[in-house]
Structures are given as structure tokens and as C-alpha cells.
Amino acid sequence: MIGLYVHIPFCRSKCPYCDFNSVAGAEAAIPAYLQALGREMALRTAETGPVDTVYVGGGTPTLLGERLAALLREIMQTFPVTPDAEVTVEANPGTVDAGLLRVLRAAGCNRLSLGAQSFDDGVLRFLGRIHTAADAAAAIAQARQAGFDNISADLIYAVPGQTLKLWNDTLERVCDLGVEHVSCYALTIEPGTPLAERAAAGEVAPVDDESCLEMMRAAHEMLAQRGLRRYEISNWALPGRECRHNLRYWRSQDYLGLGAGAHSSVGGIRWANLASPGAYGASLAAGHLPVAWAERLSSERRAQEALMLALRTAEGAPLSGLKPLGERDLGPGQRNAIAELVAAGLLEIGGGRLALSEAGIAVSNDVFLRLMS
Fold it and tell me: Among the four residues 268, 293, 307, 355, which has the most C-beta atoms within 10 Å?
């Protein structure tokens, strides 16, 4: 089995905090880009076995409108997608309506990942989003009417000016809307973004660590009360509604990425496509795979990365021999670090597995740095 990721790099406007591989105001390039995607799919199909997860991300895939449904059908016809595959599309509430959602559902999309980000209009304006809180609520209602029974909502916290009350109000609203899955991410000021420029100029002050931690804990408490289980550091879901595609990443399973800047990891080889949509299309037009770089991972590096990724999840990593996913044993430095972190109460052992404790989740980046060092 393999997972398939398809990248759509187009947006109506670029959010000031975003450093993803996306471009705004380039809708005229969409037809040529879709042709290039078709060429890449044709070149890659012979390399794949059964596909049990498909994830179309961006960018803003729903900016394509009904061309997105045509792309989904092309994916289904090109690759051996299993009948029970999870097929996710990322959606911006400002680019969907009832008609498009019905078309996407009919084309095989069975999971919607909605970039709500907040249910407070002031926070949404700060984030530069093109939708309102009412738009996000309406999109969820329209998705239900279109037949979606698996909806995820992305939320952002630790936004400058966002109080704990505003964050709790957003959490309560998303719970009342009854989504099956919630992802909560702390706002990060990424270098090279307009938000980073504002921060450097002293116009924006990042939220302090204690407030950020308080908001993360508030999310866990409220979502747990509503029956959503934390199955990864930033993700909660009703039982059985965990994102199967993202679990592939955290379990170090194979995935194939298509599109500009998409990453792949298959059989211990990792590679990335050319990031520029223009360069990506030109490479495929010349009959070449659009690979920017590739590397074969050593067994030691695979073991170390497998441990880091597995520890992001509630299930953790298999403890037996400290051989995550069957890779070579970790070195003595990692074993010593694990022992120290267990003694400090940041990692815990149970059921033959190693996992972050509640305290460890709060400082997970520090735990990972300790293990990597």
C-alpha cells in the first residue's frame, strides 16, 4: 500500500504567515499545471502498488472549482486506488459552495479538511484569511448536505491579540459544529514572510511561551470533553476518524508526492519535486521527471527519524530492542537520552511502547532535540 499526495500551489491571496509552496494571482497558469500533473501521474503510475490514501493539498485546491473534481477522477483512473481509500481534499471556506461540495463528493472525495483557522473575525483578519467565521460555519453545513460525514477543521492559536477567551470561543464553536477531526497549530512566525517583517519592525509581538502552552492545554481539555481523542501532538479525532494519510507519515510508511514541490518517500529513498510551478511544468513537457533532489537514507537515519515521528503520536514507538519499524538499533546516545527522558517524566513506557507523557507533549521540541543530539 502507498499514500498519494497531490499538491495544488495556487491561492487567491497569500496569507501573511504562510511559507508553504504556493502562489497567488496565478489562476491563468492552472490549465497548464493540470496538464503537467497528468504527465507526472502517467510517468509515476507504474511505480505504485495499491493506493489506500489520497490527499490533495495546497495552496488552495478548491480554487480549481469543478476542475478539482476532474482531477480526482483522473487520479482514480490512473492509479489503483482501493475502494475503501481515504480521499481528502483541503478546502478554503472562501472558495467553496454547496454545488462544488456536491461535485467533489460525487467525484470520490470522502474527507474534507477545512482551513477554518478561527471562528473569530478579528483573528481571521489578522491572519489575512479571505473568509469569515460565518463562511466557515456555512461550509461545514453545506458539506454535511453534500454527504460528507468526515470533516476536519484546522485551527490556529497563539495569534497576537488572541485572548484565551477568544480561543476557547473558537474551540467551543468548532465542537458545536460537530466536526469529526480538529487540528490545532500554534502560529509560527516564519522567516521571509510578511508577518516576520512586521515582527522585525516591532509591529507584532509573538505570543509568549506560557500563553501558548495555556492555549494548547485548553484545546486538549475541551476537545477531550467532546469525545475527540488526541492521537498526535496537534491532532484530535473521534474514534476511527483519525487521518489515515497523515498517519502514514508518522508511521514512516511510503508515500508518493505529485506536483510542484511535493515530497516523496518510497523504499528508503526520499526526493522532492521542483518547487516552481513553471520549472515543474517545463521539466515534464520535456519528458523528464521534475525531481529537484533525491537521497537514500541510511538505516541509522531511518531509525532515528522513525522514532521522532512515532513519538508524535499517542501510540508512540515500539520499545522492543529500540528498533522502530524494524530499522537498525539506535545508537548508545539515543538509548541514554531515552533513559534520561523517562527518568525526567517526559517519556513513558507502557504496553511495550515508548511515548511522550503529558508533560513531554508540552515540551516535545526539546525532547526531540535531546534525542537527535
Answer: 307
